[in-house]
């Protein structure tokens, strides 16, 4: 293994700002979430809920600032009709984006973006770039602040200090004309002017001119210079040249509270400047005699006393939508504080009125916005700062009737719309199956996240989200095996059939979110409730069909009726499997005449009206076919003009039977499911997927999906009915128990697979014959973020909307788990679904204690303790939370003393005798003495456990040290090693004396050790703060030594070849260590060494955009994900057969894998191609890290591998500024851009694009095009396998 591949598995949830921008069309109310290096576009839909539209993360640079630029002012409906009367093409303009997003990148670019496309074909970003001046020092690089004139006539970009660039925008008509022509060029700016200002620039924005001075453009900068805060004003008029802009002298601002935190432009060129709790309104800035007047706002006590010794700050503001007449008279603002308190301000010319708007109940940062339309209530979004974000609505949605029952107070109450998940910041991570009573077969990823009072231990899961709409609990649900939801025509309700092995339970429920349950008179029911239901369905007219083990029922409603209901009882046989075809009104059952092993028969029934009276319900037995083996399941599908029944039997075969137009049965052929290593490929359930079902047409060559008893899924194409044959087959590992498949009526391209804890959505897109996309389904509940999803036993979909009284629950996904009936809304977009278990304080350390079967989390908690004789005192102390492995909240919380800190946790257990096990949690950290000095301590906590739940903690002995204890590790069952400041110590437990004894002299390191691991019982590896990885050897003393007083010694073994500031490390293979640094590096080290010498060479170096705080070797890959080729395969294709994941402080999870030399060569070349592509890397292709251009200023020049084919030895000389070790890193995020859509075709287009270049790369590509094209399929299969191999 000589190279490394990394890929972002879970993107950071941190959002820097939120902007409302209609970047598609004027009819789409879009919201843009701007992160550090990505943007997400969502649309505000029904009652304020957000729906994903598009995302972009290929900037290859950091986003510094973002604003909205208006291309065409948004119009009211009345204004549109006026424009139509004047002959202006406003309806055509409404199809164009009226706004675009303007962002600055740290690659010295000003970028404008909008979205083009539609829901069916997909959206893509269109961009226009404006280069910014480049400077050697970041502090002088423009882009720190961005401002757009309220009428979008000008822009300004400024650095943190000195440098300022102002731009004049093109006319709106010119911009719209360029966008309408779709030529790829739509220049926003026309001219620019570069200026310099003295001082550090805190804020910048354009002021709002008065109504009688609309052509006046006023730019305001708040700068700090000469130990004074000043207002610097630059103004000019529309139509004048930028060089005529007048720069006014800086005017001192007398502000209290320190550095200003907010600048809020107001009407008539005035503004608010907020510093701490001090709010000042400034006027007359243009006249040169600026006047400030302090504003008193409504006071609210902090929601979280003790969070800081200071009062909470005002952190952001937004301007809600109001009609133009009101905005001319008064400024309406929402002002939000960092603890969630929010005020509504009404700013008049001479007065400011403030009122309490509500509490966001989350930490609020810079991401805050109002996104409602004029006809909507105020919709307010806060993304959350180290806590979940929230969306609230204030006011009422538009209703056709008058709401007369609510007063103003009720109307203006904040109502929660939904929560926005945020699991930052992350300081520790555990990957574990939670061994004990856990049913997990693979590791989960658990991280510390959030800040008090919203701290949590978060399990990160990837899949499709089933958002819980409503649920109820029934004890009778515990025996349910299947569920169906059928419409009750005429009343708009739903009939739920819950099948158990002994009977069927009926529920009559409403179709709204209240989900009222009505009684069902089972005695008067047209359906059979006395035995287990095997199949149920309804047709387009709402007729109900049910097949149980003893009968077949047909009815036009749930109540029995002489003409509208029919029932056929199977008195001499038991139905063991059944399927219903509603289109042809027939059913096929597999029936057994006696006990298990008796003769089985396949029977066809005609359902619905009889031949004499089509309106009268009937069930007619039409044909039989003897079966040679015991049937397990039956599945029907119609492919005009024939209907085919597949029957799975206990001998591992699939029998295909044709159902004729006259309902006769004829065996066509039999197919054997390929056997598994453990026995036959026995099929317990089946589904047939075809896109034709969803589109209402006939299916074309559908896909047969079999759920096998050994935990696998088998897929095979089905040939035409005239020559029916199963085509190519594929096995998919899914679980360790039998797989249950659920086919949902009227959803032909999807089905659900259930086995153990896994419930998955299977989707067939027909692009690849036997490939199905498998994604986990995870339930989320905004009111219960800690919800632990148990095994799902049954699922179905609610009826379509035209059957129901309301559409709120139409087509919802219904799940039965334990005693819960869950109705969810399924979002098929692949997302991260966090499960957040709340803990006390701000969590920072996490382990899994196997003996306690609990997650143990150390947090830092604050509080205010009032004393009778003094003012309240703020205190901070650690707490230890114990969370049961199958629990959703801590079972016990242990409080430590104020002044203590926790840096490391370790579980230690020892056996005394055969049955007695003592278990402790070692808590390492520091404490502050009364003198103010800081010392170290290891505390031994002994949990009390009842029914595998920690109910108490007894504190044992404490060991004190002269310096903080940063890390702990066990050498063996009774020996631990600890990093104490810059020393390493080893202690061993003397069982007979019941005390800990120091085993060797402390070993002095050059810098503090911050992470420690062991190999065997003698090798200790330590990540140091400044001196890379150090290896120590724990051994016995020389018997002839008379100097040492300890029986063992710690000796230097080896150290890294260079000094790196490490954060964490992990062992991967016998001679490979993976290390992370605080400067964003991921390092590979050959750990082989000579005695008392350095380690072997550095293997690779990956320079990542963020530092990784923890790295873990684990097994998180789902069984159905592509398996990596291991060393049983050819060496050239070999990669690591284990998973490695790492976390960053901003919540990012990165997947890591080691790759062989040949794969490194091929994938590095593939990455170079992607980086040079204008399509795949639109913002960085001109500054790629590796270049063949002779004009490149890169300092190094070396030969680099080229060629996609296996064993290629071709090389090209490239220039780069990166180190040679960085050549051995493959960025999976860049490769993943090829996988969007048809990856193979994307790569072929990319090769042809590169061949058009007039340089060395283009010349080489033209000469080797045939070889490169022939290697496309294999290369893309390798890339897909490697990039989809984590959670």
Would you mind describing this structure in some detail?
With about 1300 residues, this protein is mainly beta. It has 12 helices and 87 strands. Strands 30, 31, 32, 53, 54, 55, 56, 57, 58 and 59 form a 10-stranded mixed sheet that branches. Strands 10, 11, 12, 13, 14, 15, 16 and 17 form an 8-stranded antiparallel sheet that branches. Strands 81-82-83-1-87 form a 5-stranded mixed sheet. It starts with a strand and ends with a helix. The model is unreliable at about 80-85, about 695-700 and about 1125-1130 (pLDDT under 50). This is Mono-functional DNA-alkylating methyl methanesulfonate N-term-domain-containing protein. It holds the Pfam family Beta-prop_RSE1_1st.
């Amino acid at each position: 293994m000589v190279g490394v591949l990394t890929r972002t598995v879970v993107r950071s949830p941190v959002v820097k700002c939120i902007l409302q921008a209609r970047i598609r069309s004027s009819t789409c109310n879009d919201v843009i979430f701007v992160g550090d290096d990505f943007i997400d576009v969502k649309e505000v839909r029904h009652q304020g809920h957000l729906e994903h539209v598009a995302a972009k993360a290929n900037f290859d640079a950091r986003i510094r600032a973002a604003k909205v630029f208006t291309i065409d002012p948004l119009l009211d409906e009345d204004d549109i009709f006026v424009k139509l009367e004047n002959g202006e093409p406003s309806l055509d303009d409404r199809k164009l984006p009226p706004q675009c997003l303007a962002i600055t990148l740290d690659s010295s670019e000003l970028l404008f973006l909008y979205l083009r496309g539609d829901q069916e074909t997909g959206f893509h970003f269109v961009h226009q770039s404006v280069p910014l001046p480049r400077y050697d020092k970041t502090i002088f690089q423009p882009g720190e602040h961005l401002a757009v004139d309220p009428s979008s006539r000008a822009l300004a970009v400024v650095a943190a200090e000195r440098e300022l660039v102002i731009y004049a925008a093109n006319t709106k008509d010119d911009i719209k004309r360029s966008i309408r022509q779709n030529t790829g060029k739509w220049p926003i700016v026309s001219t620019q002017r570069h200026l310099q200002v003295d001082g550090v620039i805190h804020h910048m924005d354009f002021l709002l001119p008065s109504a009688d001075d609309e052509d006046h453009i006023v730019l305001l900068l708040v700068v700090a210079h000469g130990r004074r805060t000043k207002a610097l004003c630059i103004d000019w008029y529309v139509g004048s040249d930028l060089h005529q802009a007048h720069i006014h002298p800086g005017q001192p601002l007398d502000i209290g509270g320190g550095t200003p935190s907010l600048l809020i432009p107001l009407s008539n060129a005035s503004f608010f400047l907020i510093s701490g709790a001090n709010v000042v309104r400034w006027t007359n800035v243009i006249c040169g005699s600026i006047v400030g007047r302090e504003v008193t706002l409504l006071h609210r006590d902090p929601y979280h006393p003790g969070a800081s010794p200071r009062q909470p700050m005002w952190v952001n503001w937004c301007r809600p939508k109001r009609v133009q007449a009101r905005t001319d008279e008064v400024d309406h603002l929402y002002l939000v504080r960092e603890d969630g308190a929010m005020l509504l301000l009404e700013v008049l010319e001479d007065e400011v009125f403030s009122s309490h708007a509500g509490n966001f109940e989350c930490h609020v940062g810079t991401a805050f916005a109002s996104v409602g339309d004029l006809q909507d209530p105020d919709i307010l979004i806060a993304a959350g700062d180290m806590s979940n974000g929230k969306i609230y609505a204030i006011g009422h949605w538009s209703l056709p009737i008058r709401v007369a029952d609510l007063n103003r107070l009720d109307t203006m109450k904040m109502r929660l719309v939904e929560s926005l998940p945020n699991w930052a910041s992350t300081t520790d991570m555990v990957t574990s199956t939670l061994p004990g009573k856990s049913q997990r077969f693979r590791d989960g990823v658990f991280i510390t996240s959030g800040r008090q009072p919203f701290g949590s231990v978060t399990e990160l899961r990837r899949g499709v989200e089933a958002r819980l709409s409503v649920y109820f609990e029934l004890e009778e649900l515990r025996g349910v095996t299947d569920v169906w939801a059928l419409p009750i025509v005429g009343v708009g309700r739903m009939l739920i059939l819950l099948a158990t092995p002994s009977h069927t339970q009926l529920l009559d429920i409403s179709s709204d979110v209240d989900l009222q349950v009505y009684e069902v008179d089972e005695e008067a029911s047209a359906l059979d409730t006395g035995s287990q239901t095997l199949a149920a369905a309804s047709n387009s007219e709402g007729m109900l069909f049910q097949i149980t083990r003893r009968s077949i029922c047909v009815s036009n409603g749930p109540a029995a009726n002489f003409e509208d209901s029919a029932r056929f009882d199977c008195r001499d046989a038991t139905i063991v499997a059944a399927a219903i075809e509603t289109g042809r009104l027939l059913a096929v059952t597999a029936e057994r005449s006696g006990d298990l092993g008796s003769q089985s028969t396949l029977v066809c029934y005609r359902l619905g009206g009889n031949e004499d009276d089509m309106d009268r319900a009937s069930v007619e037995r039409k044909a039989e076919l003897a079966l040679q083996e015991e049937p397990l399941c039956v599945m029907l599908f119609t492919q005009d003009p024939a209907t085919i029944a597949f029957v799975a039997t206990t001998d591992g075969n699939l029998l295909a039977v044709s159902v004729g137009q006259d309902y006769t049965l004829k065996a066509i052929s039999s197919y054997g499911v390929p056997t598994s290593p453990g026995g036959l490929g026995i099929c317990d359930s089946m589904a047939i997927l075809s896109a034709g079902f969803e589109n209402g047409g006939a299916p074309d060559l559908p896909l047969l999906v079999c759920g096998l008893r050994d935990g696998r899924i088998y897929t095979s194409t089905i040939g035409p009915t005239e020559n029916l044959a199963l085509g190519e087959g594929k096995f998919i590992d899914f679980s360790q128990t039998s797989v249950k498949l659920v086919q949902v009526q009227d959803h032909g391209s999807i089905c659900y697979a259930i086995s153990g804890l896994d419930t998955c959505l299977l989707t067939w897109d027909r692009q690849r014959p036997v490939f199905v996309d498998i994604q986990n389904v995870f339930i989320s509940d905004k009111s219960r973020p800690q919800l632990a999803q148990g095994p799902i036993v049954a699922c179905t979909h609610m009826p379509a909307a035209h059957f129901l009284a309301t559409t709120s629950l139409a087509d919802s996904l219904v799940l039965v788990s334990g005693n819960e009936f869950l109705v969810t809304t399924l979002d098929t977009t692949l997302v991260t679904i966090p499960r957040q278990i709340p803990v006390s304080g701000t969590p920072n350390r996490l382990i899994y204690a196997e003996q306690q079967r609990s997650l143990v989390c150390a947090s830092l908690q604050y509080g205010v303790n009032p004393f009778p004789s003094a003012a309240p005192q703020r205190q901070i102390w650690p707490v230890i939370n114990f969370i049961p492995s199958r629990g959703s909240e801590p079972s016990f919380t242990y409080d430590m003393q104020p002044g203590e800190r926790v840096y490391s946790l370790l579980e230690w257990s020892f056996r005394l005798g055969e049955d007695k096990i003592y278990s402790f949690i070692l808590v390492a950290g520091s404490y502050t003495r009364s003198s103010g000095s800081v010392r170290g301590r290891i505390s031994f906590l002994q949990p009390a456990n009842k029914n595998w739940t920690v109910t108490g903690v007894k504190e044992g002995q404490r060991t004190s040290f002269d310096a903080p204890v940063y890390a702990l590790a066990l050498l063996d069952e009774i020996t631990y090693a600890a990093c104490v400041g810059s020393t390493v110590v080893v202690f061993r437990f003397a069982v007979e004396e019941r005390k800990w004894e120091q085993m060797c002299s402390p070993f002095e390191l050059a810098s503090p050790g911050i992470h420690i691991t062991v190999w065997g019982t003698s090798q200790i590896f330590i990540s140091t703060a400044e001196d890379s990885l150090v290896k120590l050897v724990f051994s016995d003393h020389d018997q002839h030594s008379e100097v040492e007083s300890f029986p063992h010694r710690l000796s230097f073994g080896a150290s890294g070849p260079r000094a790196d500031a490490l954060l964490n490390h992990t062992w991967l293979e016998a001679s490979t260590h993976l290390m992370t640094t605080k400067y964003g590096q991921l390092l590979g080290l050959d750990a082989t060494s000579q005695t008392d010498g350095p380690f072997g060479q550095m293997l690779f170096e990956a320079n990542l955009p963020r530092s990784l705080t923890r790295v873990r070797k684990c097994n998180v890959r789902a069984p159905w994900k592509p398996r990596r080729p291991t060393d049983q395969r050819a060496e050239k294709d070999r990669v690591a057969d284990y998973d490695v994941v790492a976390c960053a402080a901003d919540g990012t999870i990165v997947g890591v894998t080691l790759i062989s030399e040949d794969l490194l060569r091929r994938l590095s070349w593939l990455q170079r191609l992607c980086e040079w592509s204008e399509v795949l890397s639109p913002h960085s292709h001109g500054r790629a890290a590796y270049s063949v251009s002779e004009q490149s200023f890169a300092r190094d020049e070396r030969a680099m591998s080229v060629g996609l084919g296996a064993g290629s030895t071709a090389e090209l000389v490239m220039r780069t500024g990166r180190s040679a070790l960085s050549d051995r890193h493959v960025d999976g995020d860049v490769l993943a851009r090829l996988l969007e859509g048809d990856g193979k075709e994307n790569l072929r287009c990319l090769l042809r694009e590169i061949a058009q270049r007039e340089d060395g790369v283009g010349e080489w590509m033209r000469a080797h095009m045939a070889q490169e094209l022939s290697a496309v399929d294999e290369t893309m299969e390798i890339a897909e396998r490697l990039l989809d191999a984590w959670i």
